[in-house]
């Protein structure tokens, strides 16, 4: 898999705004949830923000590792299962949270574990979009989202120097 053509860098500030916007959209849906299942690791940050905004204090994790290196999607491995008490609900009253859905493979695996849950992500690409119930921003399939926890400050060449080749 090669580097996607477009880059969508997200700052901490923007991520906080987008995750809070997701919480607003969820609260406006009229539904309520008694527990969050967040998909680690990317779902941990939006889950913290949503749990604060919606006052949901029961939080569990499920770990599905798919991207073994930077860009290639290897086999899907469930590294940590959902707690049995939550699994017994089949997802009734449960909110699943992740940072994004890309191909939708991670979402499909977790949905199968909790078929009645509501699935929310901050960002969605077209292939994954049908698998989520609520999201905030759609980016094209050929865009790579750079999250703030994966980035640091770095020097950037001036645009003119860059385009002269
Ligand atoms: O829709 P998909 O194509 O399945 O991709 C989306 C998943 O990929 C990333 O997680 P990743 O597996 O890289 O692990 P991480 O959250 O620990 O970074 C992201 O956080 C989503 O969970
Ligand atoms: O666009 C992305 N950005 C970061 N992690 C990801 N995992 C799948 N797609 C992406
Ligand atoms: Mg993830």
From TrEMBL:
- Residues folding into a coiled coil are none
User: Which chemical reaction does it catalyze?
Assistant: XMP + diphosphate = xanthine + 5-phospho-alpha-D-ribose 1-diphosphate; IMP + diphosphate = hypoxanthine + 5-phospho-alpha-D-ribose 1-diphosphate; GMP + diphosphate = guanine + 5-phospho-alpha-D-ribose 1-diphosphate
Q: Where does 5-phospho-alpha-D-ribose 1-diphosphate bind?
A: 41-42, 98-106
InterPro entries, alphabetized: PRTase-like, PRTase_dom, Xanthine_Guanine_PRibTrfase
In this chain, GMP is annotated as bound at 102-106, 144-145
Q: Which residues bind guanine?
A: 102, 145
Segments forming domain Phosphoribosyltransferase: 11-153
GO CC annotation terms, alphabetical = plasma membrane
Q: Binding residues for xanthine, per the UniProt record?
A: 102, 145
Q: Which family does it belong to?
A: Belongs to the purine/pyrimidine phosphoribosyltransferase family. XGPT subfamily.
Protein's recorded name: Xanthine-guanine phosphoribosyltransferase
The organism's taxonomic lineage, starting at the top: Bacteria, Pseudomonadati, Pseudomonadota, Alphaproteobacteria, Hyphomicrobiales
Task: Identify the coding gene.
Answer: gpt
């Amino acid at each position: 898999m090669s580097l996607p053509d477009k880059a969508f860098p997200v700052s901490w500030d923007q991520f906080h705004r987008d995750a809070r916007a997701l919480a607003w959209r969820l609260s406006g849906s009229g539904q309520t949830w008694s527990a969050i299942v967040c998909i680690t690791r990317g779902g941990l940050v939006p889950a913290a923000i949503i749990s604060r905004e919606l006052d949901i204090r029961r939080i569990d994790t499920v770990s599905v590792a798919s991207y073994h290196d930077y860009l290639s999607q290897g086999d899907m491995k469930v590294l940590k299962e959902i707690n049995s008490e939550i699994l017994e609900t089949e997802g009734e009253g449960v909110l699943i949270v992740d940072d994004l859905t890309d191909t939708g493979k991670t979402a499909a695996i977790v949905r199968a574990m909790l078929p009645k849950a509501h699935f929310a992500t901050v960002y969605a690409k077209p292939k994954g979009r049908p698998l989520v119930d609520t999201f905030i921003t759609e980016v094209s399939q050929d865009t790579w989202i750079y999250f703030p926890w994966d980035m640091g400050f770095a020097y950037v060449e001036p645009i003119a120097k860059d385009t002269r080749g």
